Amino acid sequence: MAQFVNLNPGSLRELHVGNERLVSYNVEMTEVTGGTFWKAYTPAQIAGTEPFVLKGGFLGNATASTDLMQYYDPIDLSDKKLRKLAKEIGPAWVRVSGTWSTKTYYDFDGHTNGVIPEGYNAILTREQWLGVLDFCKDIGAKLLISVADCEGLHHADEPWNPSQAEQIFALSKEYGKAIDAAEFVNEPNLLAMSGCPKGYTAEQYVRDQDIFIRWLHENYPDCPFVGPCSTEGVLKKHGEKAQGGGVGDILPQCSTDDLMKGAQEKLDVYSYHYYNGVSERLEPVMPFAHWKADKAHTEEYLAVASNMAKFHAEKRDIYCPGGEMWVTEAGDAGGGGDTWASTYLDVFRTLNELGSFSVVTRGIIFHNTLASSDYGYLKPEVFDPRPNYFAVLLWNRLMGTTVYDAAEPVREGAHVYAHSRADGKPGKAYLVINNSLTDTTTVTLPKEAEVYHLSAETLRSQTMLCNGKALVLGEGNALPEITPAMIKALLSSLSEELAFASVTKVYAVLHNLLKAALLDDTIDRNPMDKVPRPRKSKDAALPTEHKAFTAEETRYILRCLDG
User: Fold this and answer.
1) Taking a C-beta distance cutoff of 8 angstroms, is the pair 484, 423 a contact?
2) Quick one: which of 295, 179, 158 has its CA closest to 238?
3) Which of 97, 213, 214, 390 is buried deepest, with most CB atoms within 10 A?
4) Under a CB-based contact definition with an 8 Å cutoff, are residues 295 and 241 in contact?
5) Residue pair 198/151 in contact by the 8 Å Cβ criterion
6) What is the predicted pLDDT for the residue at 60?
7) Which of 78, 77, 67 is nearest to 39 (CA)?
8) How far apart are CA 343 and CA 410, in angstroms?
């Protein structure tokens, strides 16, 4: 059913002011050191013309199947294209963590000669870590990490010790890019898969988390602790199947309450992980946690993000009252993303996640990842932007940090979110999502608006359009100009009210005014250069009579002239 949205920006009620680094992302530790990560889908699988089939079986271990995982060389964080595109997103946090991080040994003096110590699964070199620090320095990012907590560091019945953490914190500080925030362990509620010591219990985790927090606050008092970083979620019903909570709702686990029970040290920031379920890669062993592509636009699917935020906001109020809430991993599906994660179809979820989370609370969302696997903002290795990259780029350029109650109920075809303008100018910025595949949504505003209309030729297209223009990199990896359709719309509307000669005069005035602003360095381009000169319609009817002023209109004009 078609939807009609009547917006009234002058009567909006302010909810709160959000975090300017809301849009953040992960660079997994396995990317930094080189290691196994989710194997990319084929072009046909991404297009939806070829189903994903797990040939070798799961074998009880995700890393055991060549259909699921593969080895990747370390990411080149010095790449100019990567840094340029990361900068363009805007202020962000970079999270270097993941299960791989829990079992990574810091060899900053090269004493291991490349031999991985027993009980670890990877080595982080000095050069690799300085590459992370340089990357964060250059793009102006803040840095969040987790630390080693594995069998190589200590046994389960022994308390955690800071011998490894001391090295990475000290080197970072010495290099002039201190670690800005820290977790303890990635997804500790999945104890059997967390990388922690064999036989690790929730009680032992609580013990060691307290030790780490005390060490952190004693040695780096300006570095907040972020936790518990769990995957616990809310299952949604779809037909007879339970879907939408992610891996943490399927695998054996302990709860957030278990991870915090008996904890003596407090959280500085509350965190959790959010995925809409699991990907096709994990569907064979977790069929009830997987959403099909034809559900990726539905109300039930899109509601998962806000339901998760509301669930964890209650936990935050218990364990970190008054603190921010961070989603330290987020994406369409655990297991490296669905086949459509790199396409336009996932933009509905991404933008709705940002909008709905901002209504619930203030904090940060770390997308997983910047440039790895199918859910990365950028395509791995070549770093070409995907639709989601341009979606969050526009969010940061348009949506300010002040969040308002949009006064519109969320419904199919009308997910409406209201913020201040990101440029600080008077006015409001609205995000309106039409997630209906069949019906139109009509939006009425009391005044003119700049319109950025996102679309694609197909739902699974890997190229997104803005106002009909393809968003792709130009020569020298230049970002495309993303301009509103306002000027064209203005001239079109004037042509319905004014004579053709008047419309051309408006065009000339706008062109000359903006040309002067360009020459004065007030603006860096003249948007009028891409607006064609108005042309008189061949079918336009010629006036048959002249309109005369009425007596009242004439008296009004004379009064104005009289002073």
Assistant:
1) no
2) 295
3) 97
4) no
5) yes
6) 46
7) 67
8) 24
Q: What tokens appear for 92 in the block?
A: 């962000």
Q: Roughly how many angstroms between the first and final C-alpha of the chain, as a whole number?
A: 55
Question: Which residue type sits at 159?
Answer: P
Ordered domains of the chain (ranges, CATH): 3-12+409-477 (no CATH), 21-39+72-393 (3.20.20.80), 486-561 (no CATH)
Q: At what angle do helices 387-398 and 347-360 cross, to 10 degrees?
A: 30
- Which two structure tokens, joined as six digits, stand for 89? 């997103």
Q: Looking at this protein, which amino acid is placed at residue 314? A: E
Dist CA 423 CA 405 (whole Å): 20
Task: Report whether 153 contacts 161 (CB < 8 A).
Answer: yes
529: tokens are 């250069």
Q: Are 65 and 112 in contact (CB under 8 A)?
A: no
Q: How many other CB atoms are found less than 10 A from the CB of residue 201?
A: 15
Is the previous residue joined to 369 through a cis bond, with omega within 30 degrees of 0? yes
Token digits for 237?
């019903």
Among candidates 351, 350, 95, which has minimal Cα distance to 229?
Answer: 95
DSSP letters, 107-138, are ESS-TTTTPPPTT-SEEEEHHHHHHHHHHHHH
| Residue type at 36 in one-letter notation | T
Q: Which residues make Cβ contacts (< 8 Å) with residue 442, sequence separation at least 6? A: 2, 3, 4, 5
In the structure encoding, which two tokens stand for residue 205, read together?
């985790």
Q: Name 421's bridge partners.
A: 399
Cα diameter, the chain: 98
Higher-confidence residue of 213 and 527: namely 213
φ/ψ of residue 357, rounded to 5: -60, -45
Give the position of tokens 């490296």. Answer: 336
CA geometry: angle 129, 131, 133, nearest 5 deg: 75
- Give the model confidence (pLDDT) of 98-156 as tens digits: 999 999 999 999 999 999 999 999 999 999 999 999 999 999 999 999 999 999 999 99
| pLDDT of 482 higher than 90 | no
User: CB of 206 within 8 A of CB of 261?
Assistant: yes
Query: Token pair for residue 194?
Result: 């967390």
Which range is most confident: 20-24, 248-252, 530-534? 20-24
| SS3 readout for 224-292 | CEEEEEECCCCCEEECCEEECCCHHHCCCCCCHHHHHCCCCCCCCEEEEEEECCECCCCCCCCHHHCCC
